[in-house]
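Preliminary data (for renewal application), nicotinamide-adenine-dinucleotide complex.
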Amino acid sequence: MNAITAAENLNESKRLVGHYINGRSVTVSGERSQAVYNPATGQVVRQVALASKTTAQQAVAAAAAAWPAWRLTAPLKRARIMFRFKEILEQHANEIVSLLTEEHGKVLDDARGEFVRGVEVVEYACGAPELLKGEHSKDVGPGLDSWSEFQPLGVVTGITPFNFPAMVPLWMYPMALICGNTFVLKPSEKDPSTPTRIAELLQEAGLPDGVFNVVHGDKEAVDALLTDPAVQAVSFVGSTPVAEYIYRTGTAHGKRVQALGGAKNHAVVMPDADMDNTVNALMGAAYGSCGERCMAISAVVCVGDAVADEVVNKLALRVSGLKIGPGIDSQNEMGPLISKPHYEKVRGYVDAGVAEGAELVVDGREVTVHHQPEGFFLGGCLFDRVTPDMRIYREEIFGPVLCVLRVQSLQEAMRLIDEHEYGNGTCIFTRDGGSARYFTDNIKVGMVGVNVPLPVPVASHSFGGWKRSLFGDLSAYGPDAIRFYTRRKTISQRWPTDSVDQAQFSFPSN
Ligand code: NAD
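Predicted structure:
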């Protein structure tokens, strides 16, 4: 690792977020870097290193060197590190939550929620000895026992998006590590400080050097990880076009890949729904985190015009009253978008919706935030009478823009959802068990809520969408993670007895 020098020795790296390789912070002289913004002020707060192919390969080499010893570390010992990690994380909660708000923009309470959901995966990973027990069958034939064990893969990598810089990486590596793998994380270059700080805390918990590494970067780093022969598996979360690219490239290079993509999550509102609770739920699910959640509700399908009129009237009042401003001010309900280009993109969708003929009931385009003229703030926007052919309905906007569609029956609502290219999350608001059961049984979506607007599974279940929201077979965290990060091996065993077995030419059977 000659090209890599300790970060603290380099004056120019004072404000540079460096990589984390083999248990230490590293920067590489001459490597590219990129600005990191505080989206609430629009100001550059630091720079992030962008790894070259060589740096990414060095991180993989560090993980490969650490693997033989980590593979043989008892699951209980791996779990003990996770216990300490959880404690250290909780001791640093305020620091992590503030860092998250600074670089992402989401309000502090929301950042805290993200942090807690990430820690829940660490808590689940503490069950390593139980989760990795395997399966055993005695006397499957005369004197013959058989069992399946779940062996680690080796070096695995995770590539993560900007919108959950703490939680989404935590979906991946605690589970991969307790299974006996070593890991290279490539977080989003837009908010890199949180995952880097968490990596340091994991090291403090007693993880051996090289078992967990972080490389920052863009496509160059990702491509290096996707094609490195030592990398056995790739977990990706991000937009659908990149997810598809990762899936195709990774599998073409012989790797196991799970690639979670984008979404357009529908909420169906039935005439018998509790309207006040429904509107409250929709507000949080559509405008929380400025709509930058893969489980955000971005389309409300109202069954009947009377339902639509009531929902739109109630929502309009609430959306125009949203408290918008920097996430560090706990009075605020919604912070800024992540970047200027993303702000322009979301605003462009609002313009397109108007041009396409949707009715813009609340227009957040001209919102101003006191003292923050450079921040990437967009007000909440609400469209009524959106139709399925419009771009604002077909495409993922990933901003504070909610589209209301009007249909006449539950079947019509479900047809809309099923025909959409994405199938991440959905929800039905109703008081009728029969409608809810029909909906949950038949809808072609991976995660479904009944009066639960953001049905994000808890850590002991698994997270994953259907259709073009997930490429691959296994979802993130929970039981699927044990399967994804291990390889099944089945052993059949018989010990010699005093009798001599005859050669047997028929296929073995009982
Ligand atoms: P993105 O796809 O732009 O980036 C995700 C990661 O891929 C980043 O680490 C980025 O550096 C890398 N990347 C970007 N372009 C690449 C390229 N051409 N080649 C190789 N790597 C590339 O996503 P984002 O904007 O950071 O995040 C928002 C998206 O993530 C939304 O579409 C959202 O729905 C999705 N998301 C999905 C889930 C889920 O669980 N399904 C969860 C969170 C976010």
